[in-house]
Specification:
- This is CoA transferase.
- Its EC number is 2.8.3.-.
- InterPro entries: CoA-transferase_III_domain, CoA-Trfase_fam_III, CoA-Trfase_III_dom3_sf, CoA-Trfase_III_dom_1_sf.
- The structure is a single chain.
- By secondary structure, the chain is an alpha/beta fold.
- The chain contains 18 helices and 13 strands.
- It folds into 2 domains: 268 residues, Crotonobetainyl-coa:carnitine coa-transferase, domain 1 (Rossmann fold, 3-Layer(aba) Sandwich); 77 residues, formyl-coa transferase, domain 3 (2-Layer Sandwich), CATH 3.30.1540.10.
- The two termini are 21 Å apart.
Length: 407
């Protein structure tokens, strides 16, 4: 890296991303936010995600976040000599992350053994739909497929019998993002094991499957099925193991989330809605009974919330110290004082859009916080810089590679 200042706890870590769409790029965004130097290999036409989402003058606002803190280097991976260039970069990186179909990089001359011939202790993270082996290895998959086969799309649906609409999507590319987070955790773990005091100096391979990343989040779903034959069912807005904990309609068309599922909280909520006797009734005497009678309980709470606008309900619930919040839209997230105070919603300079709102950095590390050094770069914006600074190539060499269609 040419910079020496700290940009977070991963400053000094260099990661080569050979990724596209969401999963691998999400992994490197997390690492880059915490200070890692991310070298993103893109085809000359750019990552397809540059065309996703809302755009201004043909430029994706999504890319402003998706590509931030990354140095974009264009490489035509199918061109003669391209694999040698990528190998030279891999030799100067701590880790490589990719999310092509299993075997595709090997066919391009960039298999694990070849990359480790360039750097034996290289950490390599593969992200794919189903993993690098097994009967589904070669199946096509995106995040939504992982969400379905991993059980999440079943659980996020409405309650059985309430609608014949298709199972509800979470609303973001959660399967891709989960896989990216697992890959980031795996990379940091492998580098720590390799480099720590008396470390073994070995490279390691991470094999992250979208389907497995999703399935790993399903709590007690599998043991309940194995031991009891119980198939966990979607519960809509409710939590199947605690009550009351749901979204309730307000008089102004907004929704309020109320989670008053402990005994003291339920007692306070009962007083607040004008029904202080509810905790003494057998049907609501404890959490187990409240779960069993949740439909009736939610009707009682909903009759109160329907009588008031969300501002008043939220104020009353906060005054009573009951966990609650209105259901936020993008506008409410953007204006929230807590998010603003902690920098989770912040203004960032973007060369295309001027000031634009970005998501902040998670985790927050007070002693060495991460930093948004720049928004998503132009396609190939850093090609010459990276080839010059990292590989020591001269302008004439770079120009020749450009003429040959390698970069």
């Amino acid at each position: 890296m040419t910079e020496t200042a700290s940009h977070g706890p991963l400053t000094g870590l260099r990661v080569l991303e050979i990724g596209h769409f969401v999963a691998a790029p999400f992994c490197t965004r997390v690492l880059g936010d915490l200070g890692a130097d991310i070298i993103k290999i893109e085809p000359p036409a750019g990552d397809p995600v540059r065309q996703w989402g809302a755009q201004i003058d043909g430029n994706s606002l999504w890319w402003s976040i998706h590509g931030r803190n990354k140095r974009s280097v264009t490489v035509n991976l199918k061109a003669p000599g391209a694999s040698d260039l990528v190998l030279a970069l891999a030799a100067r990186c701590d880790a490589v992350v990719e999310n092509f179909r299993p075997g595709q990089l090997e066919r391009l001359g960039l298999g694990d053994a070849i990359m480790r011939s360039a750097r034996p202790d290289l950490v390599i993270a593969h992200i794919s739909g189903y993993g690098q082996d097994g009967p589904y290895r070669d199946r096509a998959a995106f995040g939504v497929i992982g969400e379905a086969i991993g059980g999440l799309r079943y659980l996020t649906d409405h309650e059985p019998g309430t609608t014949d609409l298709p199972p509800v999507r979470v609303g973001v590319s959660i399967g891709d993002s989960l896989a990216g987070l697992y890959a980031a955790f795996g990379i940091v773990s492998a580098v720590w094991q390799r480099d720590r005091a008396a470390g073994d100096g070995k490279g390691r391979t991470m094999d992250v499957a979208l389907s497995e990343a999703v399935l790993s989040m399903t709590e007690g779903m599998l043991p309940e099925y194995a031991a009891l034959g119980k198939v966990r069912q979607p519960t809509g807005s409710r939590i199947p193991t605690a009550a009351p904990s749901s979204a309730y309609p307000c008089s102004d068309g907004k929704w309020i989330l109320i989670a008053a599922n402990s005994e003291p909280l339920f007692a306070r909520l009962s007083r607040l809605i004008g029904r202080p006797e509810l905790p003494q009734e057998q049907r609501f005497a404890n959490n187990r009974m409240r779960v069993a009678n949740v439909v009736e309980l939610d009707e009682l709470i909903g009759s109160w919330t329907r009588s008031l606008p969300v501002d008043q309900i939220e104020r009353k619930l906060n005054d009573a110290d009951i966990p609650s919040t209105r259901v936020y839209s993008a506008a409410e997230c953007a204006a929230d004082p807590q998010f603003r105070h902690r920098g989770m919603v912040r203004e960032v300079d973007d060369r295309l859009f001027g000031k634009v709102l970005h998501l902040g950095i998670v985790p927050h590390v007070p002693d060495d916080p991460g930093k948004i050094r720049w928004a998503g770069p132009a396609v190939g914006e850093h090609t010459d810089e990276v080839l010059s600074d990292i590989l020591g190539m001269q302008p004439a060499e770079i120009a020749a590679m450009r003429r040959e269609g390698v970069i």
